[in-house]
Structure formats: structure tokens, C-alpha cells
Amino acid sequence: MAHRLFEEKDHASIYQKYRLTPPDNVKELVLQYLDKKKGPPHELAVDLGCGTGQNTRLLSPHFQKMVGIDVSENQLEVARAVPGSTNITYRVGTAEELPFPDGSVDLLTAASAAHWFDHERFLKEAARVLKPHGCMALLGYTDKFGLHYGSCGDRLNNIYLELEKTLLPYTSSRVAVANSKLSDLYEAIPFPDKERIENIPVTLQMSIEAVLGFVQSFSMYQSYLRSKPQEAAALLESIQS
Fold it and tell me: What is the per-residue pLDDT across 113-141, written as a single tens digit (0 to 9) for each?
């Protein structure tokens, strides 16, 4: 069953504005792996759980056709409104039932999305639709990161720890799968030739507005907002102050 925690229009708008795009060095690792294992031509890539299309747009210049798939029509509506990518098609769908013929896909990707999938059904579909020597790239990040600003780093990180505690009761068990670095899913991948790359450091400059927007994009914050809207708004105000 698909998890539907990113459905609302307001959430989709926040997701597009503040959600992080995978860094270029990660994109290059994926493309280099594809070149090594399969080589050209790069005809079709499919981005699963694409949301508002950050990873989809990042990869699209490197393929003849790019398809983004997500369960949320509102997320896809926002993705379609972003100009500049003429070879992208967005479709409503799930990772467990892919609308592609057998052996037709060069690259399957999922950026911060694979923890929501039914792993057994997804892997069967991946094996079905990938071309011979086609590749799959499952990307993610954990919530273990540091905040730094002058001499305020410790205080900022303590604020974030308190935020985590507040949101914990509203956090799906699937988030723990992401924070485990998809360890069980990786072990279940049936392909004998697979690689795991961990701990790719990323440094970002973010405004307070961007940090607050990033927090609002979390599924657990949205669950908190639906349950206790006044407390959720007060939480953002306390972070900002």
C-alpha cells in the first residue's frame, strides 16, 4: 500500500521551494556508474517517488526521456509547473507497479523516497523493467547533520535536537528505514553487482527562512501540523526566535 503523507497542495508548494536537490557530485557518481556498467545510449530514466521533481530535473539533461512517478497528483502538478525541461513526463503511480515494458529502462532512481516503498514488490518491478546491465540508484540522507553559524553552533544543534523530540511521536516508522541508510533494502537487492557509498559530505548555506521551510517539508511536521496546528506554528516561531 502506498504511503500518502505528501498530498496537500500547501505541502507540495513547500516541498518544491525548500526541499534539497541531490548535489552534483552524487549525480556524477550515478552517471559514472551507469556508464561503467551499461554505457550509452542513455534513453530512458525513471525517478520514483519524484515529489516535485528536484532529482528528476537534475538527471533529465543526460537522458533522451525522463519520467517522474509519484503517488501525489498535487506534487506532480507543482513539478509540471517548473519550466525548462522538455524531455520530462510526470505520471501518477507507484514504485510497485511501473507502467513500462520489460527491459525498457536504463536507470531507476529514488531520492529520499525508497524507504516508503514495499521493498519486495519494488525490487521485482525493478528487475522486470531494467534493461540488461541497466542500473538502479537509491539516494538518501539521514537526519544526522550539524548546524553552524559563528559561535552559535551548539545552541542551533540543541534546538534541532529538541525539534526532533517534539516531532518523534508524529514520525512514521518508515523514516527509521531511511535513517538506517536503507540497510535492509540494500541487502535484499538481488543483483550480484552492487555498490554502497556512504558519508558523502555536503555543506550548504541556508537562510533561516530556508531552514524553517525545510522543517515544514518533513512528513512528521505535516502530521504534527494536522494534529495540533497551533502548537506546530508555535514550534516554528520558537525556532526562529
Answer: 999 899 999 999 999 999 999 999 999 87
Bond into 41 cis (ω within 30): yes
Contact 97, 122 (CB under 8 A): no
Q: What is the pTM of this model?
A: 0.88
> Of 114, 113, 53, 112, which is closest to residue 88 (Cα–Cα)?
53
- DSSP assignment of 152-191, as one string? -HHHHHHHHHHHHHHHGGG--HHHHHHHTTTHHHHHH---
Express each pLDDT in 8-34 by its tens digit: 677 777 878 878 888 899 999 999 999
Provide the residue type at 206 as one letter. Answer: M
